[in-house]
Amino acid sequence: MADPRDPAVEGLAVYRVGGAVRDARLGWPVTDTDWVVVGATPAAMRRRGFKPVGRDFPVFLHPETHEEYALARTERKSGHGYTGFTVHASPDVTLEEDLARRDLTINAMAETPEGELVDPHGGLADLEARTLRHVSPAFVEDPLRVLRTARFLARYAHLGFAIAEETRALMRQLAESGELAHLVAERVWTETEKALAEPTPAAYFHALQGCGALAVLWPELAADEAALAAALARLDRLPASLEARECPRWRWARLMEHLDEAAREAIAERLRVPRVYRDRARQAALTRRLWRCDDPDAEAVQAWLDGIDAWRRPERVAPLLALVACERPALAAPLAAAWEAAAQVAPRTLMAEGFKGRALGAELARRRRASLAQVLEER
């Protein structure tokens, strides 16, 4: 809570808003706190030591806590996409007017510094009913809200949340309107990356598929419903040992692994997907090709190891073997043993025997393949 005696906010009408209010009442961890200031001007905020950081509308950082304080504002649709708005921020904008511009009712609640709830749109009732519902028909003015609503479903679906049918209808309306095409790639990817880190990422893509947005943004995925269903089921089949920061990357990889290289690259280029995600997807695709083989031989395993650059990047092998274990547990152990044996064949040993240049490379590949074959035959 804000301390009313804090010199920076003393005398200001400040309210905690949005996610902090929602998550505190839901029992979800509150990591960031945002505030709305009613009745103030940018000059007044600067005189109190607040640092302006907002580019498109007046947002300030508290001089001590560095929490965000935004002046109450309204928005009017003036163009395409999520940036196509004219923002009006002035001392005469009320808290209720500021809350009315928000996307979902559970995000349109506010609190006084003493904890008194301000809830003009029934957000608390929807929170208790586990419902994601739009605040007003103005929902359709911002296409990014389709992705945000789907992302909130990915966060809360395991708690029993669902999207209200009337909100789904507005999401379908937005998908059919052509507005999604005006979203910049970075914002689409940002929402997607966040969704991949949520407890139920498949819910994000299910929601987008259901309203028609997936066909607009990821036609390569939406084209084959059966393949998409299988891909979404794979998002939960990840090694338990993965670090938290690696989970979104490998979830993306599992989502992409059944697509051919051209389709994966088309999506990556269109969304400007970071290189680390592209690399994971390529490695998972190569690994999928291996574990789908009935009985991979030494040549197939060597091609896989070459493809993932295992000889120079041996740290890549363990997580990919863990993916194999998720799909074909009986294959993982022989592959691990074969890799361990082949990895013992060192270039320096062959160089000591007099091999060099192309002959060194050819002999190295031959001996590694022989090591792989021997172990695989034994297993």
Description:
By secondary structure, the protein is α+β, with helices and mostly antiparallel strands. Among the domains are: 1-120, 2-Layer Sandwich (Beta Polymerase, domain 2); 259-379. Helices cover 52% and strands 10% of the residues. It contains 19 helices and eleven strands. It has helices at residues 19-26, 42-47, 95-100, 123-128, 144-156, 165-177, 185-196, 201-211, 213-217, 219-222, 225-234, 247-256, 261-271, 275-291, 298-307, 317-327, 329-343, 347-352, 357-378; strands at residues 13-17, 34-38, 51-52, 59-61, 68-71, 73-77, 85-89, 110-111, 117-118, 131-132, 162-163. The strands form three sheets. Strands 3-4-5-2-1-8-9 form a seven-stranded mixed beta sheet. A hairpin with a 6-residue loop joins strand 4 (59-61) and strand 5. Helix 7 packs across helix 12, helix 14 (275-291) runs antiparallel to helix 15 (298-307) and helix 14 (275-291) crosses helix 16 (317-327).
Q: How are the SSEs ordered, and which strands pair?
A:
Layout: E1 13-17, H1 19-26, E2 34-38, H2 42-47, E3 51-52, E4 59-61, E5 68-71, E6 73-77, E7 85-89, H3 95-100, E8 110-111, E9 117-118, H4 123-128, E10 131-132, H5 144-156, E11 162-163, H6 165-177, H7 185-196, H8 201-211, H9 213-217, H10 219-222, H11 225-234, H12 247-256, H13 261-271, H14 275-291, H15 298-307, H16 317-327, H17 329-343, H18 347-352, H19 357-378
Parallel strand pairs: 2-5, 10-11
Antiparallel strand pairs: 1-2, 1-8, 3-4, 4-5, 6-7, 8-9
Helix pairs in contact: 5-7, 5-8, 7-12, 11-12, 12-14, 13-14, 14-15, 14-16, 15-19, 16-17, 17-19
